Amino acid sequence: MICCDSPEVRLAPTAGGSNGAQDYQLLGNLRVPLGTHWPTIVAFAQGLDRIKQRSSVFDVAHGQHDDPDTAKNLGDAVAMGFTADNCSHHKAYADEFPLIFAPVFSEVNFVSPSGSILHQKPGWFCPWHADIFTFYARSRGIVDKRSITRHLVFLEDWSPGHYLLVGNSIVHAWEAGDVITWPYGAYHLSANAGFRPKLTLQITGQIRP
Ligand SMILES: O=C(O)CCC(=O)C(=O)O
Ligand SMILES: [Fe+2]
Fold first, then answer.
1. Which end of the chain is more exposed for a tag (fewer CB within 10 A), N or C?
2. What does the pLDDT read at residue 187?
3. By residue range, what is the domain housing residue 96?
């Protein structure tokens, strides 16, 4: 398993080759459990580019959210050639659209979750980074950040060119509703080198004991 405690993975994510271990976990599928609300979420994500301006992973303006954290952990990505343009997304947060997220939160057993939806167009990346949930931990008074988990939900079937890398493991060929997670601090990235927007939903929080 790869973690942010190993800084060298920033530069050589595949150096270990395929050792048979999978650095992410497939947890299940939320499409059927969400019933008639599922198409509402998907339509919302599809139309997100019309209701939310694009922002980038380098934006530190979202004071209420964890983006500044991610931006910090992207380190020298700009020097490497990533730009606010090619690292854009359209992003919505659960506190802005509670009715979209409430049924999702009811399905997962999180204490006080936060959520977001990402609409990533062809040509856009989220470069290699780890999320350490500083804002989330502070806002909920959580001392042990390792107790915080993220679940990532794919909102549409995989389309060629849609891609994540978690540690050494490539994530692709998912089905709409699939939910994955990875260990706290694991480095990951996403890229859309395909022809259709890539739509995902993130749930962050502590799993109810
Ligand atoms: O949905 C994606 O593109 C992955 C975004 C990401 O970095 C995350 O969920 O932590
Ligand atoms: Fe991330």
1. C
2. 86
3. 30-153+171-201
